């Protein structure tokens, strides 16, 4: 399949991807919101920008991992804009200001399990490792969540001032 070309094979290996987009966005937009619209927009935008920068280096330049196929692909934009941002909105919407470590550990576990599901062969999976290893996700996922949380705290501080 050529990058950007839509075919039957392209749809077949997007089962988990498409169903996840539908599920994550449905939950995000139907859940009781503890976030303001402004916070949701900030989280969504921050996630897209962070993913774009991070993935340009890891995916495009160093070929550490990639979605669907190596190289620039329009489907990556769906991951950046429709798959991962709603998960970050859910994480911050339900963030307990008490018992933080347990809550974040459960989300990291969810992210790791989901990443492994996305690594399944075609029909279900759409994610591929190059030189990237599972242990790197175990190290970087908490750092990325801490970055997201720090950004969120900053946005809340700005809103209060």
Distance between the termini: 51 Å
Major beta sheet summary: 2 strands, antiparallel
Radius of gyration: 16 Å
User: What's the rounded overall pLDDT mean?
Assistant: 88
Helix- and strand-based class?
Answer: mainly alpha
Number of strands: 2
Order of helices and strands: HHHEHHEH
Flag low-confidence runs.
Answer: 1-8
Large-scale geometry? globular
**How many helical stretches?**
6
Question: Helix share of residues?
Answer: 55-70%
Tell me what the structure shows.
By secondary structure, the chain is mainly alpha-helical. Helix content is 70%, strand content 4%. It has helices at 8-12, 15-30, 37-61, 74-93, 100-118, 134-160, and strands at 65-67, 127-129. Helix 2 runs parallel beside helix 4, helix 3 (37-61) packs across helix 4 and helix 5 (100-118) crosses helix 6. It is built from six helices and two strands. The protein is globular and about 45 Å long. The protein has one domain (8-160). Mean pLDDT is 88; it is low at 1-8. The longest helix is centred in the C-terminal third of the chain and has 27 residues, at 134-160.
Compile the SSE list and pairings.
Layout: H1 8-12, H2 15-30, H3 37-61, E1 65-67, H4 74-93, H5 100-118, E2 127-129, H6 134-160
Antiparallel strand pairs: 1-2
Helix pairs in contact: 2-4, 3-4, 3-6, 5-6
Short structural description:
The chain is built from six helices and two strands; from the N terminus they run H-H-H-E-H-H-E-H.
Keywords:
two-stranded antiparallel ribbon; 70% helix; globular; disordered N terminus
């Amino acid at each position: 399949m050529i990058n950007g070309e839509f075919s039957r094979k392209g749809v077949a290996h997007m089962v988990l991807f498409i169903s996840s987009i539908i599920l994550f966005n449905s939950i995000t937009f139907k859940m009781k919101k503890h976030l303001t619209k402004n916070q949701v927009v900030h989280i969504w935008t921050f996630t897209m920008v962070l993913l774009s920068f991070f993935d340009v280096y890891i995916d495009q330049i160093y070929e550490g991992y990639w979605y669907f196929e190596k190289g620039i692909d329009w489907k990556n934009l769906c991951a950046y804009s429709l798959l991962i941002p709603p998960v970050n909105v859910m994480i911050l919407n339900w963030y307990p200001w008490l018992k933080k470590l347990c809550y974040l550990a459960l989300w990291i576990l969810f992210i790791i399990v989901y990443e492994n599901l996305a690594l399944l062969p075609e029909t279900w999976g759409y994610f591929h490792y190059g030189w990237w290893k599972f242990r790197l996700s175990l190290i970087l996922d908490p750092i990325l969540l801490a970055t997201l949380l720090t950004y969120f705290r900053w946005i809340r501080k700005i809103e209060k001032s």
